[in-house]
Amino acid sequence: MGHLSDSQRLEEENRQLREHTLTLKLSDLERKHEKTCTEVFQVQREALFMKSEKHAAEAQLATETHHRKVVSLYRSHLLCAIQGHMDEDVQRLLYQILMMQRLQEQGR
Question: Contact 86/80 with Cβ under 8 angstroms?
C-alpha cells in the first residue's frame, strides 16, 4: 500500500476525515443522550414528588373537611341541648359516654 496514487491518497484522507467527523458526532450525541436521560430522570422525580404532595394535601383537606362537619354537627346538637331540645339518639349517646367515663374513673 506504499504506492498510492494522489487520487487514492486523497480518497483515503477523505474517508479518514469522514470517519473522524462521524466519531466526533457520535461522541457528541452520546453526551447529549446522557444529559437528556439525566434531565428526564430529574423531571420524573419531581413529578412523583409533586404527585405525592398533591395526594397528601388532598388527604389533609378531606380530613379537615370531615373535622369541620363533625364540629358543626356537635355545635348544632349542643345548641339544641341548650335550647332544651335534644334528639333521643343524642341523649342515648351522651348517656353511654357518661357511663364509659364513669367506668374509666372507677378503673383508675
Answer: yes
pTM of the entire structure? 0.49
What does the domain layout of the chain look like in residue ranges?
Answer: 6-107
pLDDT tens digits along 56-81: 999 999 999 999 999 999 888 888 88
Q: Which residues contact 80 (CB under 8 A, 6 or more apart)?
A: 86, 87, 90
Number of alpha carbons in the 13 Å side-chain half-sphere of residue 108: 5
Q: How far is CA 33 from CA 20, 40, 103, in A?
A: 20, 10, 71
> In sequence order, which residues have a C-beta less than 8 Å from that of residue 86 and are 6 or more positions away?
77, 80
